[in-house]
Amino acid sequence: MNTSLLRLRHLPQLISMALVCTGGWAQEGPQLDLQRVELAAGMYRIDAQVAASPQERQIGLMFRRDMPQPEGMLFVFEQPATQCFWMKNTRLPLTAAFVADDGTIVNLADMKPMTEDSHCSTRPVRFVLEMNQGWFAKKGLKAGSRLTGAPFKTARP
After folding, report:
1. Which end of the chain has fewer CB within 10 Å, C or N?
2. Does 48 score more than 90 pLDDT?
3. CATH for 29-149?
4. Residues 18, 78, 36, 68, CA torsion sign
5. Dist. CA 28–CA 48, nearest whole Å
6. Which of 133, 58, 47 has its CA nearest to residue 97?
7. What is the spatial order of strands in the sheet that 125-132 belongs to?
8. For 119, which DSSP code?
9. What's the confidence (pLDDT) of residue 29?
10. In angstroms, rounded to a whole number, what is the distance separating the alpha carbons of residues 98 and 126?
11. Cα–Cα distance between 94 and 108 in angstroms, integer?
């Protein structure tokens, strides 16, 4: 066999290996295998995927075509900051809840699919919970409502 043909035959694998090693691999589909955590908003339960690494947070809910109603994605950041989100490559209409360390919802933002409009927290937060658009409103949850679960520190009286 011609050695140049042999090299060309292995080119796709070499490119894939180089992309993975350099961190340049492009996400082609939704990330569905993230760690999960159970959260609660009063009597309502939320099954949330946890996006904690920079790559997991960057991909978020991109490429998802649907998401069951009691599911969401919890973005966890290392320290409180003004967090801003957009909907590039995200097909689902979502609401982002910007959440303080104690689980209090600071503000909510409805986000349109496939847009690059910026939606930001009104004060520094470490957590953002994305749910299907309308989920918070249907449950009567708004700024000042509290989420509970392992990620949130509970205030001690």
Report:
1. C
2. yes
3. 2.60.120.1140
4. negative
5. 22
6. 133
7. 105-111, 94-99, 125-132, 71-81, 44-51, 36-41, 148-149
8. E
9. 86
10. 8
11. 10
- In single-letter form, the type of residue at position 17 comes to M
Q: Which of 120, 129, 130, 55 is nearest to 92 (CA)?
A: 130
Of 108, 48, 106, which Cα lies nearest the Cα of 74? 48
Select from 76, 91, 83, 78 the least CA-distant residue to 108.
83
Ordered DSSP codes for 51-72: E-SHHHHHHTTTT-S---TTEE
Domain borders along the chain are: 29-149
What's the mean pLDDT when you consider all of the chain? 86
Question: Given the structure tokens 């409502």, which residue do they identify?
Answer: 145
**Pairing mode, if any, of strands 84-85 and 148-149?**
unpaired
Helices (H) and strands (E) in the chain, counts: 4, 9
Q: How many CB atoms lie within 10 A of CB 102?
A: 12
Across-strand partners of 46?
A: 39
- Looking at residue 7, its pLDDT comes to 44
- Residue 12 belongs to what H/E stretch? helix 11-22
Give the pair of three-digit tokens for residue 134.
Answer: 């309308």
Instruction: Give residues with Cβ within 8 angstroms of 82, minimum separation 6.
Output: 120, 121, 123, 124
